[in-house]
Amino acid sequence: MVRANIYVTLKQGVLDPQGETVRSALESLGFKGVREVRMGKFLVITLNGMDVKQAEAQIDEMCRRLLANPVIEDYAFELATVPESKAETA
Amino acid sequence: MKFGILVFPGSWSHQDFSWVLKDVLGYEAFYIWHKEADLKGADCIILPGGFSYGDYLRAGAIARFSPAMQAVAEFALKGGLVLGSCNGFQILCEAGLLPGALLRNRSLQYRCQWVHLRVESELSPFVVGLQGRVLRMPISHGEGRYYADRETLQALHQHGQVIFRYAEVDGTISQEANPNGSVMNIAGVCNRWGNVLGLMPHPERAAERILGTEDGRLLFEAAVQSLIRA
Question: Where does the pLDDT of residue A85 fall: very low under 50, low under 70, confident under 90, or very high at 90 and above?
Fold first, then answer.
């Protein structure tokens, strides 16, 4: 089976008040040099019955149609083949 | 004049719309469950506020795939009147029936308060005769920060698609009057033809004197007038 790690992030230029709040919290904890924090979503999707190439097309369509909103978000993903047993216990 | 009010799991303003349209204004109104693909001959479709499908993923992201929304998209393409308020506005943007998107409030806080809206354009039948008026309505949302990119904003202004902007009581547009950080204080926009209108405020909660204002009913009355003229 194929596992996809999907990252959905706000486009550059879209204000991210959550990220800014986290940045200022890190600053008040004493962490230095944190210039910017951008928050996003991380999804893990496990697919059955297809190879990596087929999975790539599927995941890309999922991102375009549902998982990301192209008006405000960008997406990226990475794919890996995983053995059945490992996938079930994960 | 028949209003069809969509109901999703998690809608919360449908009964307020029904009350105002039927009991206060005397029009015919009925509910359309999200699984129904038949709009039952409605002349105007209402997408109410709430938290459809729990706002999972993004507000309005899942609701747009329901059978009822597929029917609404066809209805809108044929010029049918569609009004989305609050979550209804979010759904219309997610469905691509309106430009832009709605993001977490800049304050990160849920905002439940009265606002004033300046009517910027009469492109939509819901606001014919109201240009320049300042209307008072409540908002109640956590994700109402309107966003569109620069090119989209230019096109919206050029075509008169920006319908409502958050304003002071005298109509002045200011940062203080902007409750959620919306770009250019935008509170509501319509599509290119004006038949689909979305706004974050709640006209259905501002349509009776006992609630402090009847401004909300102006939108419904304008829509009815436009259908009578048509």
Answer: low
Nearest-angstrom CA–CA distance, B22 and B5:
11
ipTM: 0.85
Q: Cα(B61)–Cα(B55) distance, rounded to whole angstroms?
A: 8
Percent of chain A residues topping a pLDDT of 70:
93
Does the structure show a pLDDT above 80 at A87? no
- Residue numbers of B between 15 and 54 with CB closer than 8 Å to A: none
Pick from B55, B56, B57, B64 the residue to mutate for testing the A interface (most A CBs within 10 Å). B57
Is there a contact between B70 and B30 (Cβ–Cβ < 8 Å)?
no
Partners of A67 on chain B (C-beta within 8 Å) are 57
Nearest to B106 among A15, A66, A71 (CB): A15
CATH of domain A2-89: 3.30.1280.10
Q: Measured on CA atoms in the order B47, B102, B133, B124, is the torsion positive or negative?
A: negative
Asked if the model's pLDDT at residue A88 lies above 60, the reply is no
Q: Please report the domains of chain B, with CATH numbers, ordered by start residue.
A: 2-229 (3.40.50.880)
Taking 60 as the threshold, does the pLDDT of residue B141 lie above it? Answer: yes
